Amino acid sequence: MNPTMRLVYLFISLALCVLNGYSMNSYYVSVRKPFRLFAIVTLVCFVCNAYLFSVVGRAAFMQIVILSIGMPYFVLILLISRKKISQIVFNVWLWITIYSLVNIMSMFLNDITFRNLHFENNVRIIILIGYLIVYNKYLKPYHCSILEIANVNWWLFSLVPALFEMLIVAAVHYSRVPQGFSRNYVVLLVIFVLMILVYAIVVYTFQKAHTAMKLQIAKAVFAQQLDEAKAQV
Length: 233
Prior knowledge:
- This protein has 8 helices and no strands.
- The chain has 233 residues and is an all-alpha fold.
- Helix 1 (3-23) packs antiparallel against helix 2 (32-56) and helix 3 (58-80) packs antiparallel against helix 4 (85-111).
- The termini are far apart.
């Protein structure tokens, strides 16, 4: 693949990642202003990373991509988001694990079909677009409702996606790769199934606790109103 096409795929993937990350947060400023800030940072980030990509090469660039792309957006979200810092950290790690899943899915589909880098990049872009649509249409209300739950230690909870990402990295680099594949997909499948189960249990537990808390508050308010009514009588 020629350098120009690699930069085109890099820019499209970066733009889609920004849209997904943008959707996961709420902001102090108006709707248009954070979008413009994200657009400006995206343009600057793309120019800087395109230069790095051309200077250090793909192999070295992939080792620093999390810092060279992730850190500018993390700082931007930290400055304009209404979320707590711990919640922002959780969202960042969550998105990193989701992108790892998307990346590995595209590699797997490429390994069992055309084994072509153009095809792999196109599949990755299609999956990112699909996830963006599914998240905004179906998953965002659940995600937002979980973040609104009080008395959650988000620093501790951020360890869940962080640890899963470490498992994914270890599986990619240290597990034995079956012949004919670029990754050990059996090990990665086990990690992803376990991750989905953990998140499902956590979401279910959080929702039950949140429902119980709201019911308890409603009962307390009703009891107070009843006492006031008795006092008036």
